Inverse folding.
């Protein structure tokens, strides 16, 4: 992804009280879950149209799907912090993150354009994808947005979808790749490895007892990828990086199978990570999750997993990581 260094990204969560320096941007509209190559294509196209303006996105949290279908399993590719980092990496200077609550859900498409984009944000150019829909009951689309912005003297760009031989890039497609156990293919469409960020929690110490201490993270709102053991890279809060292996799943040999979680063992690391925010990037699925006859069998398999991961890393460290 192309990066920019002009200024640090600014996050705005109160759209009714935007500081003067954030008014008058060129904005891309969308949920930007994952900030994948299709999103980057949209962002670059919008700012190519008005390179003289500050670069911004208008996005929403919670994701509208989370708001309207809270009973759905977690599905997010990026949570707010990870989304900020990914957007900053592609040159965004301002993020307008709108709280998607009941009041906002009932705002008409016309009100969104007039009250939010025009009056509150003072945008000078707007861009979106071909399938962008917004407003109460998704009442506004590309044609409506084009007409409304023109009447207000706001520039508008409709950006064609970026595709490859597999079809259009999309967050849905990337989710499917991860659920099928192909993080390396998901990385090709994201432009970077897919990562889970979270605070290290105290577990039941089974990893320590088995000789493979782990840092445990709840998946929370993240999509659950295919259950199994992965080669990973872990970035600590101080910026240090370590290779390792991670298990994602229900841990059927040692747990009651009620909560799926991520447990990561870092190679060549010793120390206390409890309470730290870490990022775990998935690179390759080594094997699917399975139940073992007991702890000794599990310990032997983990040793094999570590050996296999280290051999793969030694053979192609740059290609994999």
């Amino acid at each position: 992804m192309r990066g920019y260094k002009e200024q640090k990204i600014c996050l705005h969560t109160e759209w009714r009280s935007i500081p003067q320096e954030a008014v008058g941007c060129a904005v891309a509209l969308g949920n930007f879950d994952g900030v994948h190559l299709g999103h980057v294509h949209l962002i670059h196209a919008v700012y190519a149209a008005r390179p003289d303006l500050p670069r911004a996105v208008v996005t929403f949290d919670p994701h509208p799907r989370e708001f309207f279908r809270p009973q759905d399993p977690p599905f997010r590719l990026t949570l707010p912090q990870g989304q900020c980092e990914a957007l900053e990496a592609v040159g965004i200077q301002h993020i307008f993150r709108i709280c998607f609550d009941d009041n906002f859900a009932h705002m008409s498409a016309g009100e969104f354009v007039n009250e939010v984009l025009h009056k509150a944000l003072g945008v000078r150019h707007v861009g979106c994808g071909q399938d962008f829909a917004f407003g109460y009951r998704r009442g506004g689309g590309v044609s409506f947005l084009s007409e409304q912005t023109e009447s207000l003297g706001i520039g508008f760009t409709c950006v064609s979808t970026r595709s490859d031989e597999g079809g259009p890039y999309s967050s849905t497609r990337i989710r499917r790749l991860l659920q099928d156990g192909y993080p390396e293919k998901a990385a090709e469409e994201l432009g970077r490895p897919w990562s889970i960020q979270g605070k290290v929690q105290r577990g039941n110490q089974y990893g320590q007892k088995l000789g493979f201490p782990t840092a445990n993270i709840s998946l929370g709102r993240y999509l659950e990828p295919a259950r199994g053991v992965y080669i990973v890279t872990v970035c600590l809060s101080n910026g240090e990086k370590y290779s390792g292996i991670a298990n994602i799943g229900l841990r059927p040999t040692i747990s009651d199978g009620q909560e799926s979680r991520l447990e990561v063992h870092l190679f060549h690391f010793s120390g206390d990570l409890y309470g730290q925010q870490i990022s775990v990037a998935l690179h390759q699925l080594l094997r699917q999750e399975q139940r073992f006859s007991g702890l000794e069998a599990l310990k032997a398999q983990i040793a094999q997993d570590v050996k296999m991961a280290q051999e793969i890393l030694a053979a192609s460290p740059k290609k994999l990581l």
